[in-house]
Design brief:
alpha/beta, 4-stranded antiparallel sheet, 18 strands, 16 helices, about 500 residues
Amino acid sequence: MELTLTLDAKSEKPLQAQVFDQVREIILDGQIKAGMALPPSRLLAERLRVSRNTVLLAYERLAAEGYVRARGTAGLFVEPISPDSLLLIQQGSRSLTNGPVPDASSEPLLCFAGSPGGGGDRPELDFWVGRSDPAGFPLAIWRRIVTRLLARETIYLTDYCDPAGLPELRTAISTHLRRARAVAVTEDQVIVTTGGQDALNLVFNLLKGHTRQLCIENPCYLGASLIFRNAGLAIHPVPVDGDGLRTDLLPTAKGSLLYVTPSHQFPTGATMPLTRRLALLRWAEETDSYIVEDDYDSDFRYDGPPLTALAGLDGGRRVFYAGTFSKSVGAGLRIGFATVPRMFWDEARMLKARMSNGQAWLEQAALAAFIEEGHFDRHLRRLRQVYKARRDRLVGALRRTFDGAVVLGGESGLHLVWRLPPGFPPARQIQLLAREQGIGVYALSSGAAYDFDPGARDDMLVFGYSSLNETQIETAVGALQRILLGQADRNEGTD
């Protein structure tokens, strides 16, 4: 099979992404039929005059997203895609046809402000979910950027920003999303928020007038469940399995709003395959429903190439994308964002104005510069190496200490789940026992997760590994082993 690809070495888009995009389009255009083989990676690399690794990365991503499948040593073969699914992807690629560009001279909006707070003590060795490593914060670079901003642009400290966010930051976010997550949005579709939870609140309040019932993964992120449970609308929890949300169990009634974490389901860690993502988009079209995609830790994928976000397949029609810099840079910045289809832009901007005065100028300006000057990409590459090493150490320690422990969701993100084997105490009991010894491990009910089924099995422990170094991880798992052995001895003594 000959593939005619044109690569631009001067483009900002990496070569492997160019190969992926062009081969994907060739498949979707039907130039390569289902069952046909892709050229061997070595041969294609020679023809394109690129490294073989460039082609392998593109091929891995095509396989990860379900466009091709490996057949042993025979090679990679194109997977069949149904006509409905093909139409859905092709429509989604026309990402900028969902409304006119808003008038740049819109009247300024007044708004109100609030202040976050919180805190609490933690165990000495704490596997709490979603905590960034304090030592990983790019303090020197951040200080240099902030000093530069304060030396020349202090007028902005006494003025209000656009409630939708600083334009420079919205532009930087849209550029990053197009490059890293294949979400083709522009600056006028991005709303800057106070973290990810604020982004979810914004989208929910924006869509509640269009919504008759709420759908949510089960189990799910606690923050999303709190919003839904206080909405006064019927809630339809949808079970998850090893491939994420069960799309076959979604309701068929019109006018739903669905919350989903397809790239790294919270808390189980499942990654939703392409077939289910397409089924999700078909469901939204057929039922006139909308989807909130929470991509809370998508910057950290360790095994395989990054996956196209659901919003990248949708093309700005049905999916509202919520993200945050709390995991990748620091929660103390309090910066997240939501993307909205253009038809919702004016309404979203006015709603954000009513919710708050927008974010502080200095943090927004510093983050925009941090991204635009390339520091963010280098920072992510460094953190991925650090967190991957910690993930590997935790997985290895659990499996070595507990005889092949079943670990879920470790392919990406900042946490994983250990499914407890039969005969072990319930997860909540282990959590309490560990806490007494200065070890923080968490049952789903305590690890920022929520299960709508009160009778759900209590056999999963959540480990957030990003804020502990490798030595601390080994120490903590060893202590956990001694705790469980001591509990087993006590149980035998009472028999």
